[in-house]
Amino acid sequence: MRTFWPRSTLGRTLLLLGLLLLGTQAAVYVLFHQYVMNPAAERFAEFLLQTDHALISSGAQYAPTGNLQWRPASAKPGKIPDKYFMDKTAHYVQQQVPGARLRVGLDEGSTTWMWIRGGPHQPWLGMPVSPMSFGGQGFMFMRLGVIALVTLLGAWLIVRQINRPLARLAAEAPRIGLGDTPDNLQPIGGPLEVQHLTQAITGMANDLHRLHEERTLLLTGISHELRTPLSRLLLILHLPDSDFLEQKSAMRVDVNEMDETIDKFLTLVRSGDQEKAVVVNVRNWLEEMQEIARERYGLDIRVAENHFAVAENSIRCRPLALERVFRIIFDNTRRYGDGSLQIRVLSHPGHTEIQLRDYGPGVSAAHLLAMNQGTLPRQTGHGAGIGIRICKRIMDLHGGTIYFENAAEGGLVVRLQFPVTAPLRT
């Protein structure tokens, strides 16, 4: 169905501004005539009647006075005025004095005369006046031309303020589609709404980039991690029956390893995004984690002396996701530490910090930097580094941070910082 509504932003803006200016002009026209022209015409009618009555009272109608002329009451000089101001003046003259009349006309020359009769039986008083003009057709077309020019200029300026940043955003969009990170995009600028649109598109591009990386990591990681245990299982299946039965325990280890690997990768993808956030007491939460560390991982938990003095703070978290962080730390302590773990709680302005320290050999400076960046590569005997990425992702989800450092006395310290009042990302 065809519509007359313009499709371009310039056309729509021009149409809206044109309608707005026309409506404004109509309102100004009505208000000007209602509150300026009409009262002025009424006062002018009063002045004419008072002048006519004063001259008649002084007997001036029997002799010409200056440029004034007199005509008998039966005469019909001039014609009924057709201009707005004079027409309203004539209306007020008749309204104020019944039988009074006002006419306007030209004499034999080019002089305009205004004739007024102050009563039905009074003579006509004629006065030469200058032509009264409030603008003809030329002025009207000039005014409309100025309005159209201002409207077009205003529409162009408005559309330019919007279209320029949108055009730049459209030029940057293919880069996002090709996989470029939005962090490298040039500032777009423009109105606040365009900036909000830019931020929304940038956030969407970041999410797409993250999902692409997760998909790649999931596919390559699972195929890499499962290849070794699958190869061992395939080899065992070709052994004789007697040797096959002897390898049952090794097969169970391989199956558990594959199950753990799949679970880690799926946890990395989900990261607790759909879990509902709740507020928990730090002390109660750590008591639950200590029980899990002792029963499930066989760790020796040591609590710092100031632990219970500052552990009454509350944090907002997703419990299952956050428990996954602690389980990964417990598992790494069991594998690479000496089985001992110290817990300390520190309270800082704006955030609560939980420190988990093991007493193992620590890690090298290069690995420490990679761990803090969440990019730890696979090392022999050290898994795929997925657990650290999971921890970082979950802490980012909570608006907090995770930081690794070597303790001065030996061992690895994990710092978990949680904002006190900052809302969780959804």
Structure description:
- This protein is an alpha+beta fold.
- The protein contains 11 helices and 11 strands.
- A 5-stranded mixed beta sheet has the order 6-8-9-11-10. A 4-stranded antiparallel beta sheet has the order 1-4-3-2, with helices on one face.
- Mean pLDDT is 77; it is low at 422-426.
- Residues 221-422 form the Histidine kinase domain.
- It is found in: Cell inner membrane.
- Its main location: membrane.
Give me the side-by-side strand order of the main sheet. Answer: 6-8-9-11-10
Q: How far is it from the N-terminal to the C-terminal residue, by CA?
A: 42 Å
Number of distinct helices: 11
- Taking all residues together, what is the mean pLDDT? 77
Instruction: List the helices and strands in order.
Output: HEHEEEHHHHEHEHEHEEHHEE
| Structure class | alpha+beta
Low-pLDDT windows of residues: 422-426
The portion of residues forming beta strands comes to 15-25%
